[in-house]
Amino acid sequence: MDKLFIITLLGMLMLANGVAENMVYNNFAILEELESFEIDEENDVVLFDIPSWTRERGGKVLVNVDSFGAVGDGVSDDTQAFVKAWETACATLEAVFLVPSERHYLVNATRFKGPCEDRLVIQIDGTIVAPGEPKNWDPDLARQWLEFSKLNGVLFQGNGVIDGSGSKWWGSSCKKNKTNPCRESPTALTIDSSSSVKVKGLTIKNSQQMHFVISKSASVRISEVSVSAPGDSPNTDGIHITQSTNIILQDCKIGTGDDCISIVNGSSGIKMKRIYCGPGHGVSIGSLGKNNSTGIVSKVVLDTAFISETTNGVRIKTWQGGNGYVRGVRFENVRMDNVDNPIIIDQFYCDSPTSCQNQTSAVKISEIMYRNISGTTRSEKAMKFACSDSVPCSNLVLSNVNLEMEDSTVETFCNSAEGFGYGIVHPSVDCLTSHDKETELSQNYILNEKTEIDELADSNSDHIVHTEL
Ligand SMILES: *[C@@H]1O[C@H](CO)[C@@H](O)[C@H](O)[C@H]1NC(C)=O
Ligand SMILES: *[C@@H]1O[C@H](CO)[C@@H](O)[C@H](O)[C@H]1NC(C)=O
Ligand SMILES: *[C@@H]1O[C@H](CO)[C@@H](O)[C@H](O)[C@H]1NC(C)=O
Ligand SMILES: *[C@@H]1O[C@H](CO)[C@@H](O)[C@H](O)[C@H]1NC(C)=O
Ligand SMILES: *[C@@H]1O[C@H](CO)[C@@H](O)[C@H](O)[C@H]1NC(C)=O
Ligand SMILES: *[C@@H]1O[C@H](CO)[C@@H](O)[C@H](O)[C@H]1NC(C)=O
Ligand SMILES: *[C@@H]1O[C@H](CO)[C@@H](O)[C@H](O)[C@H]1NC(C)=O
User: Fold this and answer.
1) Using N-to-C axis directions, what is the helix angle for 21-36 and 3-16, rounded to 10°?
2) 426 an active-site residue?
3) pLDDT, tens only, 136-148
4) What does the domain layout of the chain look like in residue ranges?
5) 283 CA distance to ligand 3 centroid (A)?
6) Is the peptide bond between 100 and the residue preceding it cis, with omega within 30 degrees of 0?
7) Is residue 80 in contact with ligand 1, taking CB distance under 6 Å?
8) More confident: 438 or 376
9) Is the pLDDT of residue 29 over 80?
10) CA dist list (Å): 319 to 6, 110, 283, 350, 388
């Protein structure tokens, strides 16, 4: 974007509003900060030169689950065969753990642990299916179905399917029937405590709860992954990122009964590109701050998305009573189609059977940019900035936003939210306020931000970001 143009535009805007000149400078600094942060793709994780093991198998050792007794008829229990095949593959240099195509492998909750020998490929061409009966689930693995951990430099790929057979779990959820106890159900696929991981082309469907969780990991590239579950399946988030850094998701198609993508505490440097989302609850940062906890998320970019028939579009959600911050987020080039809340910040989030009390402490939300977002809304309040009374949102910046509703006018809701719009912004964001004091405060945030981001990167993963294999 043309800098001079922005300066001129802002100048005109601010003068027209009779705002002091130093504010123009402050706001411009914010813009520049938001414009300039990019997730580092130049230094991308170079995992393998071989895009597909089949094309150029030289040196690879095939470890086929069938050779370890897997039956693949969808009825026989293939868990032990998978465990034995994993032990062999993990201990072998340049192994390919193969789940052959056109078969259905019934596999129990299992931990696939690393570290493994170098250049492991997990090639999933067939279907891995979970036992469908919650009563028989291993209580020691209540939260997992297929969990991969402590891997470094691993490629997951194939046209296969990971099928959580979740329908009985959904039926026993407290969201479906209030007399059911609320308890956690397994995540279909988890990648935990790992680095330099690529996941390409898999389909994950009908998970018991969340579909794909990336936790405590760094440098993960996910592409062409599809996730699907019915729109009314409870808590079936598509891709959930927690305590992870330097993650790129691209060309993914996600439709479930909860968030298409959710990004929670301890995550930074997350880029989402070309995402198709719907049905579901949209692309979310949060929830954060539940039970007075600390939630920190920074440097998140969503660039190019189509969000259709969802309850939310781009959302930031935090509970009352939390602390920490969400800072440095850009949502851009998003097309919304029939979305209930296309743009929403909800600091009064309360996904609990009992009501939540307002508190003075909150997760601080600042430096959030919305750019080139258009389409249709199902609610008149096309934009909602419901921020904490005691910890206002600051530096919300909107540019070229156009949201419309059939046969109705639309409006923006603000509570305790500071920021501004430039270019076309419809509905208008006049309810965002800009106070001098606020701006000074936010200026300090900006000065601090770079160092804080650097610190965050240092403490978590800087040594991994530049890994080349
Ligand atoms: C799978 O889990 C069920 C229930 O816990 C158990 O009966 C069965 O033996 C398990 N299969 C394997 C191979 O561990
Ligand atoms: C809810 O669950 C209870 C206990 O399992 C059951 O008796 C009741 O019929 C269920 N209600 C609905 C609406 O399914
Ligand atoms: C939030 O993430 C940080 C950094 O990864 C971690 O140290 C902390 O324990 C997490 N807090 C919660 C409440 O999960
Ligand atoms: C959170 O902190 C507030 C204020 O200190 C306290 O009243 C509340 O009980 C706490 N909530 C939880 C879930 O611990
Ligand atoms: C809330 O946090 C406290 C202190 O960390 C913990 O003891 C308690 O179990 C948590 N409550 C819930 C509902 O998670
Ligand atoms: C705005 O976003 C839409 C939807 O992603 C995209 O097709 C279009 O190219 C974007 N426009 C600009 C100027 O980037
Ligand atoms: C919490 O505060 C918000 C904003 O001031 C207000 O709209 C809401 O009614 C309050 N909720 C409760 C439970 O007091």
Assistant:
1) 140
2) no
3) 999 999 999 999 9
4) 7-36+259-352+359-462
5) 21
6) no
7) yes
8) 376
9) no
10) 35, 33, 17, 6, 10
How far is residue 213's CA from residue 147's CA, in Å, rounded to a whole number?
A: 9
Q: How far apart are CA 356 and CA 345, in angstroms?
A: 17
Calpha distance 13→409 (Å, rounded): 24
Instruction: List, for residues 63-85, the tens digit of each pLDDT value.
Output: 999 999 999 999 999 999 999 99
Q: CA-CA distance, 329 to 324, in Å (whole number)?
A: 15
Cα(321) to centroid(ligand 4), Å: 7
DSSP state of 136: G
Residue 79, ligand 1, Cβ within 6 A: yes
Tens digits of residue pLDDT in 218-276: 999 999 999 999 999 999 999 999 999 999 999 999 999 999 999 999 999 999 999 99
pTM of the shown model: 0.88
Q: What is the pLDDT of residue 183?
A: 85
- The pLDDT score that the predictor gives to residue 456 is 34
Atom number in ligand 7 closest to CA 356: 13
End-to-end Cα spacing for the chain: 36
Give me ligand 5 centre to Cα 291, in Å.
Answer: 6
What is the atom index within ligand 3 of the atom nearest the CA of 324? Answer: 1
Rounded to a whole number of angstroms, the CA Rg of the chain reads 23
Which entry of 104, 211, 240, 281 is annotated as an active-site residue? 281
With H, G, I as helix, E, B as strand and everything else as coil, classify residue 330. Answer: strand
Residue matched to tokens 């209580």: 139
CA distance 154 to 171: 35
- Hey, which CATH number is domain 7-36+259-352+359-462, 3.40.50.300, 2.60.40.1120, 2.160.20.10, 1.50.10.20? 2.160.20.10
216 alpha carbon – ligand 1 mean position (Å) = 28
Which residue bears the tokens 């403490």? 459
Helix (H), strand (E), coil (C) string for 203-238: EEECCCCCCEEEECCEEEEEECCEEECCCCCCCCCC
Percentage, residues of the chain above pLDDT 70: 81
**Burial status of residue 136 (CB atoms within 10 A of its CB: 0-12, 13-18, 19 or more):** exposed
Q: What is the pLDDT of residue 58?
A: 62
Confidence of residue 452 (pLDDT cuts 50, 70, 90): very low
